[in-house]
Amino acid sequence: MKRKSKQKKQQGNLFPCSLEDVKTALSQSMNDNPDFYAKFIDISDQQRIGFYYISSITDDKVLYNQIVSTLMEAKKYLDYKSIDNMIPLPEPTKEKKVDKIDDHLLQGAVCIYIENETSCVNYFIPRQEKRPPEAPETESLIFGPQVAFTGSIETNVNIVRNMVDSKQLKIEKFLVGEKIPTEVQMVYLDDLANDDVINEFRNRLTGLEVEDILNSSTLSQKIEDNPYSIFPQLLVTELPDRFTYSLKEGKIGVLVDNSHTSIIGPITFTSFFESTEDLYSRWTIGAFIRLMRIMAMVLSISMTPLYVAALTYHYEVIPEALLLALGESRSRVPFPPLFETLLLETLMEFIREAGARLPTKVGQTMGIVGGIVVGQAVVQAGFTSNILIILVALSALASFTTPSYLMGSALRIVRFSIILISGVFGFVGFFFAMAFILIHLLRLRSLELPYTAPFYPFQYKDLDESLIRLPYVLDRNRAKSNLPKKVGRNASRSQHPIFRTSKKDIDE
Amino acid sequence: MKHTVNIPDQLKFRAAYLFFVLYTIMVGVGFVPYPRDVYEVAGQDSWLIVILAGILVHLVMMIIIFCLKSYGNTDLHGILQQTFGRWIGKLIGYLFIIYFFLVYVTILMKYTEFIRTFIFPSIAEWVVAALCSFLVVYCIYGGIRAIIGTSFIFYLLTFWLNFLFFEPATLMDFNNFQPMFDIDSKGVIQGIQITAYTLLGIEVIWMLYPYVHNQKRTMLYSQLGILGVILSLLSGVVISIGYFAPNQLIEQIWPILTIYKIISFPFFERFDIFVVSFWKFIILPNLIFYAWLITRSLKRVNNIKQKHSIWVVVVLSSTFIMFFKSREAINQFVEISAEIGIYFVYVFPFLILPFAIYRRIRGANK
Q1: Is B273 within 8 Å of chain A by CB?
Q2: Would you kindly state where each structural domain of chain B is located, as residue ranges?
Q3: Model ipTM?
């Protein structure tokens, strides 16, 4: 009976009680953590005030200078209203139950309790070690702002707000994760983003039932349309300009606390081959680079499989002059083409992975040792042919032209499977694999919108947002495929000098 | 079974895609041997046959769409059961399903033969069938949007094969077309018959019609699709006649592929090998559409889930093709199913036509 009442007290209304009781209750629910602190001060003979906080996540400067010292100098009878008048911090939250308080404390609040009152107040003074925004590392740009998202969601929102000074910028806040909640903010432009898509994204975030999330990449994998697919269906980027550009296109962005990357959706397959670089460069260069990347993607997944298929089954398709060179370089190789290619591709993956895992200084050495020394030795030892080295190196290079690292890695996995099936069924297998990839892409969706968007369902006006890039004079519409509320960009073409002229003929 | 078909809006597609649907379902394995087959009966006037047969197909298409429009928002099986009553309607529906299955098997068989002749002489039938069936099942599971998308994307990816005709076209000898109009009525009828076999596929509109978003434009785009097919067929025939010497063409089993043989690039010789493998992209929409027709019909007639019936289709067809080993047996089977096809595709619409007209008149009187 006694025990039951104690339990009830812990769960529910402890107040009014002494400061020590609150301390024991909170300390118990904090599992007696050493960084939980309580400080009591006497204001007058009748009045004592207690401060409860977790020292590691509260800003002690603010706590001592703005709160504790102010109240110590008060020298008069205090209630919560007069406290609020004295402390220059935003409106506190009032709590009447003890078990609600620890949630606030974990988010960096200080709890102030006047002894024998029926409630307490919580001021949020979180402390977070922030790093200033740095230059992007995984998605580097030549032009463009040399800034990447940081680990702190406040800084990230700050960057986004500074880049998009608009009343229409709308931010929705969620807590994702039942055991360890993480703050997630959904950002979009209210007058552009489609309501159905917003709802879909919101439902995915709020309906997610997980214990915790690690960062934005894991979150994006948990809310994707098809989690089994090899291709990512949400774009993960560390570039704030990419993020804000997508918002201006009517897409939706998601920022996650403690992660250096943001999520963008809905996206299409070609989104992964776009970069803000194309927008900063002049249109000829931008369009050229974009087409280059698509071509590189196709070559990267088809070159080595075609080599395997041709050398295993279809010698006759290789022209005579080339066949001689190939035969010469392959004359010492004891392995079938499939094995030879897999060997070299695996070696390439080893070098890449080693380079990525090692510290930067050692990584470069590793690349040289792996690439030049081992590559040379492999050919001299007669393990592979020279021509294959060229092809493997080219396709590896081509796969790195993809601006999104996620997509680049996906393409490399795809290449391995195409090599395997081409080695078994030759060209027939190669086209089987290609057809499978195409059908798979056609079936994929991103936030319920088609993944292959400007091509199927076909929107020829959207091609300049995906496959090519037009000069800005001609580019007057947003991509229709992500269903923005407003398609036109409101830019009047007639104001441009080349359209303003009243000349009727040349030299008039 | 409900007579009218109500398709949810998000599953419907724009009528313009009918162009690609008809193009991809009509162009198939039959195109490759066609110039020789028609040359055998019609000689140098084969191009005339293509045009005549083309007009016939256009006409049949017109009748089909007229019937569909007069019956309102329904498909083949809805029409059958409305006109002939429940049981006879169902029976004819089953006959159609058997016909669709025969065509499916034919395509698979022809493709297997194709690969055996050019690439892998000893590959087992079931391997080819498995490679095709896997993709068919995967695509059918994606639903109508994936199916239409496959046809559209694969059309775009295979369209450039037409440009490869430029080089052979420059090598044509126009004397091969002389003397013109030297053909008797028997040759014309036989020729049209052969062309009609090749142009099977327009029956897909019977089932796809309720899925079209802007149904008013069905006529325009399906006729355009047929026109596209006729034009490529015509170019194939004209180039074959002009390119080969008269006696040479008769000896070619697959004249179109032989034409591709002369195309080569500095990094790629023997383009025909490439084309044979690449033919998968042309064959796949065929298979997918017929598999869809079978499963969709079964769903309409007997309310069997498409998810389940598609497996039956691929397993049955894969075992079926194992019984036909020799080229003679395959040819015989193909000929029989093509002959059946004539009745289902070209005769059947004329059978429905009077009922459709009656319906229109009755509707007008009301």
Answers
A1: yes
A2: 9-351
A3: 0.94
